[in-house]
């Protein structure tokens, strides 16, 4: 085990915000029960906000950011985790309240990590990360129309923000479930790739950006929305009776302009999805479902792998909407 390691460190002293790759000692870690040698992390919207200026999320500095990571246990807790176990951390407010994944090592509470499923590599775990976990939770939510509400089969589902990390996974998972997926995107050059993921149809997001009607033609049995704003408002208005609209993002805006009409005339359900605060048991179950529902050979076509130093130059692109691929961070690159 190395005595020192590299990590991205952010600091904020006298309103002077800094970010840099530093060499740290393992003595840096004061808390935690399990020491993990990290292989990969990823880049999410929240990561970029934190790297920019703390995003009003980080309260104590210095901090190692990175809300996700995958790696191998270097020092276990003597009970649940032993040396050599492969593990994943997503959510839990890593990189905000405690040091996160943009590092070659992390020391965390055992309740914050889960074992990596058989048949999934550490890199594949971070191709998914928080975004992938959220995408599968959204797919389960939409599917609940027939499984929990005992309604008719879910046939047609709309996925917004379909080229993002959440959307891509939702498209593939729903298609694997036998559902006809229509994908909304602002990147027409990604249409063929979305169809390779399993989308039956691809729609330009401009068709959904205008002001929504109170209620529109019922088209969708369910919706996975990752963007919010007018796109979500239009999707709700077009949802069929007793359809479920699973929402998890706000890239197009925090406001939801709708009315009670879709909910009282069609019994549409609005289902908020949060992948940060779910129980460890639920998280283990969801991670275990991935290998049977995904084709990583297809997902990997839309992945760029970078190192810690490159990360400091790339993160602004996600905030500007300029990223076309999922970013995986190889912390040892």
What does this structure look like?
The protein is α/β, with parallel strands linked by helices and 333 residues long. It folds into 2 domains: 4-116 and 295-330, Alpha-Beta Complex (Quinone Oxidoreductase, Chain A, domain 1); 131-272, Rossmann fold (3-Layer(aba) Sandwich), CATH 3.40.50.720. The protein has 9 helices and 15 strands. The protein has helices at 45-53, 122-147, 165-176, 191-197, 229-237, 261-265, 280-293, 296-299, 308-320; strands at residues 4-13, 16-25, 34-42, 68-75, 86-90, 105-108, 114-115, 156-159, 180-185, 201-204, 220-225, 239-247, 269-272, 303-306, 326-330. Strands 3, 4, 5, 6, 7, 14 and 15 form a 7-stranded mixed beta sheet that branches. It has a 6-stranded parallel beta sheet with strand order 10-9-8-11-12-13, with helices on both faces. α1 crosses α9 and α2 (122-147) crosses α3 (165-176). The longest helix has 26 residues, at 122-147. It is globular. The two termini are 18 Å apart.
